[in-house]
């Protein structure tokens, strides 16, 4: 099990640790529900340095990405980011990732920790005809995320390029507290926020400024999961799997079938779009007592219709919520069904997603 570069800093803060994607990760520092509410009401900082980071360079880098991911990389301009997918030829999802364009011959790619080695091998296997240089630079960088409705105001005076001046899914190379950073405005909590990629040898200084200088609440993996689930953001190995295509995983919007050029999985995904999906991702609220968890069966009057991919008791709404992979006929809002919890059927109803939308992002 790997340790994060800032492991000692987390230990000094009294973090409780657990394993995730092969890393020893801080699960929480105080209580997960307190950390969740801190992000929803103010701001908090996450160490997400377990994420994989690649660089891609070469005259045909844009062509290579256009061929390998489902999104339209050619539509990006310098300083813009794109949420997209790696798919197999049969349309199964290998990973979801974010592509950042510095210019057409230079990109940064951030991937999931648990799929980093698989992604690197997959991309490397497709790269030779394009003559590009792909490098795994994960060990050279730490990644910190500041999230919450007060995130931008808290950071504004300390970053040369204030994050609120960046458009959503845009980035800049700038300095924070005098330290060089790669500043991106994306997020995984459903709140305003940004990510700060910093050279690993300078990460401790930046972390100290955020925690001790700005007194931001450190947030662990447990709250990160409840926050992203309320916002209905997909998690690999839960909502996204190799056995499922994007349209049944709730991320079909990231597939651009009409973009210029062919891409891996295009014909399979085009066939799926024509025929329709047998299964879809649905949001459930339990009306009976119980907390849904990943893997729990979902049933209707006629029998099994799917399974829970993620579930929790929502700290923000107070309701038991779940994302579930179910038969398409059962995915319409208002449809009643049951989640089987330890052999007991608990009533649930399909609701519109997301379960929660931040007032700071409404408009």
Number of helices: 8
Shape: globular
What would the average pLDDT be, to the nearest integer?
A: 96
The separation of the N and C termini measures 43 Å
Number of strands: 20
* Unreliably modeled segments: none
Major beta sheet, strand line-up: 11-12-13-10-4-14
Largest sheet features: 6 strands, mixed
Q: Which structural class fits the helix and strand makeup?
A: alpha+beta
Tell me roughly what share of residues is in helical segments: 10-25%
Bin the strand percentage: 25-35%
**Order of helices and strands, N to C?**
EHEEHEEHEEEHEEHEEEHEHHEEEEEE
Question: Can you walk through the features of this model?
Answer:
- With 363 residues, the chain is of the alpha+beta class.
- It contains 8 helices and 20 strands.
- A hairpin with a 5-residue loop joins strand 6 (80-87) and strand 7.
- The radius of gyration is 20 Å and the shape is globular.
- The relative contact order is 0.15.
Main attributes?
single chain, 363 residues, alpha+beta, six-stranded mixed β-sheet, six-stranded antiparallel β-barrel, 20 strands, 20% helix
Brief rundown of the structure:
The protein has helices at 7-12, 32-41, 61-68, 116-127, 151-155, 203-213, 221-230, 266-275, and strands at 2-3, 16-20, 23-28, 44-47, 52-57, 80-87, 93-103, 106-111, 133-136, 141-147, 171-176, 179-184, 193-199, 217-218, 279-286, 297-300, 303-313, 320-327, 336-341, 344-351. It has 363 residues and is an alpha+beta fold.
């Amino acid at each position: 099990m790997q340790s994060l570069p800032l492991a000692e800093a987390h230990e000094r803060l009294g973090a409780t640790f657990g394993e995730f994607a092969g890393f020893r990760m801080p699960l929480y520092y105080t209580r997960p529900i307190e950390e969740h509410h801190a992000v929803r009401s103010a701001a908090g900082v996450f160490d997400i340095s377990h994420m994989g980071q690649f660089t891609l360079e070469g005259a045909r880098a844009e062509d290579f990405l256009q061929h390998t991911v489902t999104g339209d990389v050619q539509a990006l301009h310098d300083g813009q980011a794109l949420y997209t997918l790696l798919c197999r030829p049969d349309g199964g999802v290998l990973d979801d990732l974010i592509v950042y364009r510095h210019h057409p011959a230079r990109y940064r790619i951030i991937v999931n920790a648990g799929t980093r080695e698989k992604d690197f091998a997959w991309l490397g296997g497709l790269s030779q005809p394009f003559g590009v240089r792909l490098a795994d630079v994960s060990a050279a960088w730490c990644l910190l995320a500041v999230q919450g409705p007060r995130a931008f105001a808290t950071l504004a005076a300390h970053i040369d390029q204030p994050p609120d001046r960046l458009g959503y899914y845009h980035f800049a190379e700038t300095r924070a507290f005098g330290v060089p950073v790669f500043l991106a405005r994306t997020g995984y909590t459903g709140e305003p926020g940004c990510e700060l990629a910093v050279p690993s040898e300078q990460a401790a200084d930046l972390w100290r400024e955020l925690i001790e200088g700005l007194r931001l609440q450190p947030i662990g993996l447990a709250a990160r999961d409840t926050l992203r689930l309320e916002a209905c953001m997909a998690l690999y190995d839960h909502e996204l799997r190799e056995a499922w295509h994007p349209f049944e995983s709730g991320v079909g919007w990231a597939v651009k079938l009409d973009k210029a050029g062919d891409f891996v999985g295009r014909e399979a995904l085009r066939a799926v779009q024509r025929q329709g999906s047998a299964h879809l991702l649905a949001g459930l609220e339990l009306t009976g007592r119980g907390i849904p968890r990943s893997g729990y069966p979902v049933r209707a009057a006629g029998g099994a219709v799917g399974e829970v991919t993620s579930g929790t008791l929502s700290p923000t709404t107070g309701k038991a919520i779940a994302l579930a992979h179910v038969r398409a006929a059962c995915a319409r809002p208002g449809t009643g069904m049951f989640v089987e919890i330890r052999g007991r059927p608990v009533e649930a109803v399909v609701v519109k997603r997301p379960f929660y939308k931040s007032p700071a992002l409404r408009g």
